[in-house]
Recover the amino acids of this structure.
């Protein structure tokens, strides 16, 4: 149980890939696993939208429009009815949950209307969403261009750039998280007045666009922490942290995420990486609160199977693929399958 507000549960009806699903979350680390198109990212955006609307002091409509790239500059209002699950014949979709013990809800109707329940009260710290696309190397002028030109990026991209550039407070230079991540960079993160980031090393100052994307992922997490956005009570959503990240670096990243959870940050991850999953299983202590959710595609929409035990995570397409590779290699080498049958 956390001493800070956190997402306790989520219920979706006819929302994108989900006909009906209910999830109970841990206050620590929550991991979504499933095939492409099962709604992993949509789950995170559904919750992030509620907190983002509070942070921006706006209606949930505007948060959803930006997060799902439904903003249309040629019309006054965008039609969010496309988020209602196709093929059901239903005329509405609903999303509701509890955050910090307070219920929130919103309903999307086929005619485009969006009804919001009682919004959450102001929160001490806004949420953080790290998208799968790296933005650390694209901070110069991005926010200004996003607002003026309406670039076809979702709101998570502009939000993360803003948080990288803005300090909520001075972060600490001495913590387990800094100790884990700083040595990987082999340098310090610096920023010019024009908004561009650099990696300053003993050899010189390298613009972030020239730094390897995997290293930029580490720099993103570290900069957010130093800026004070990953303080206790925050919510971190991270979509596919493994993208462009060498597996040898994933143990440090997972270790940092567990440290954040121990400090009071609720973490949500969507991943396709066996290494990420197994590192969580190996590094988590008995006192850590880690929950896995297997998303299964069915004709009736995505079904969710939760477990606190990694070995019971099923269906697990990530592990299934590794098992398939093992079977094919075994057959090629021996002419037999794992049951000893000749193929």
């Amino acid at each position: 149980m956390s001493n800070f507000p956190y997402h306790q549960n989520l219920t979706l009806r006819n929302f994108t890939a989900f006909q009906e699903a209910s999830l109970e979350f841990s206050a620590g680390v929550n991991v979504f696993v499933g095939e492409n198109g099962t709604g992993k990212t949509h789950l995170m955006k559904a919750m992030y939208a509620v907190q983002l609307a509070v942070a921006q002091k706006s209606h949930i409509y505007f948060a959803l429009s930006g997060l799902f790239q439904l903003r249309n500059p040629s019309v006054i209002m965008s039609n969010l009815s496309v988020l209602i699950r196709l093929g059901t014949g239903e005329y509405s979709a609903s999303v509701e949950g509890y955050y910090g013990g307070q219920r929130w809800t919103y309903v999307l109707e086929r005619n485009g209307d969006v009804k919001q329940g009682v919004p959450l009260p102001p929160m001490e710290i806004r949420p953080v969403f790290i998208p799968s696309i790296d933005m650390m190397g694209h901070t110069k002028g991005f926010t200004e261009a996003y607002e003026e030109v309406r670039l076809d990026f979702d709101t998570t991209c502009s939000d993360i750039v803003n948080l990288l550039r803005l300090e909520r407070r001075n972060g600490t230079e001495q913590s387990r998280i800094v100790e884990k991540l700083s040595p990987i960079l082999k340098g310090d993160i610096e920023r010019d007045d024009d908004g561009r980031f650099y990696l300053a090393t003993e050899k010189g100052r390298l613009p972030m666009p020239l730094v390897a994307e995997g290293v930029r992922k580490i720099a993103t997490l570290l900069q957010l922490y130093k800026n004070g956005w990953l303080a206790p009570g925050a919510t971190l959503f991270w979509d596919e942290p493994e993208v462009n990240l060498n597996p040898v670096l994933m143990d440090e990243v997972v270790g940092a995420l567990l440290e954040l959870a121990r400090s009071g940050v609720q973490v949500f991850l969507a991943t396709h990486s066996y290494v990420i999953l197994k590192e969580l299983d190996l590094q988590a202590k008995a006192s850590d609160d880690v929950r896995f959710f297997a998303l299964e595609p069915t004709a009736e929409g995505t079904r969710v199977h939760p477990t606190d035990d990694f070995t019971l995570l099923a269906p697990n397409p990530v592990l299934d693929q590794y098992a398939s590779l093992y079977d094919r290699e075994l057959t090629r080498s021996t002419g037999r399958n794992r049951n000893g049958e000749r193929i």
